[in-house]
Amino acid sequence: MTSKSGSRSVRISARRTVENRLRSQGFARIAGVDEAGRGCLAGPVVAAAVVLSPKDRLVGLRDSKLLTSAARSRLHDEIVVSCLGWAVGLRGPAAIDRLNVHRASLEAMRDAVFALSPLPDFVLVDAFRIPSIPIPQRGIVGGDRRCAAIAAASIVAKVVRDQHMVHLHQLDERYGYARHKGYATPEHLAAIARYGYSAAHRTTFRPRSLFDTIK
Fold this sequence. Notes:
The protein has helices at residues 17-24, 69-82, 93-99, 101-115, 143-146, 148-171, 177-180, 186-195, 208-214; strands at 2-5, 8-11, 30-36, 45-51, 85-91, 122-126, 137-140. It is an alpha/beta fold. It has a single domain (15-214), classed as Nucleotidyltransferase, domain 5. The strands form two sheets. A five-stranded mixed sheet has the order 5-4-3-6-7. Strands 1-2 form a two-stranded antiparallel ribbon. It is globular.
């Protein structure tokens, strides 16, 4: 979300309106849940669940895509130190190919929620509802920009996934994972055209630009 002040565009941080309303209704541990990596050609989809403390002083929480890499890393470190609980779940390329990326993302989200200890008593999810969890939940469209807990989860998921992609790059530098994190950049598509798919790739993800590059 942005607002205009003179000629400058000012980004607005995600708010705690939803969480505060739920706390007024008696819910104490409210988890935000989001994922990273749905649209990539390689690497896992990573989901994070974060329970923010109502007393923390985190500044600048917003959708991870609106932050620089340095800002994401700083906020990630602040979140994991100050929050009441956080956890991640992931599904790798083989599971994504078998399930499809939407179902794989939901499974990773469910794993992240169940990895929290103690479990939350309410779950806020970016856009979707998570099947098969015995906890009240709400899907919020645009939640990573509107809701602080979901924004925090988006940051944790993104940083954890980026770290995983850097590790994959260290194992195999041909594809440049540390630079593009598995997205379909020209560099990545050219590497696939030259070397083919690796074990880190999702073989069911075949964008038209990939065929054009290979041809």
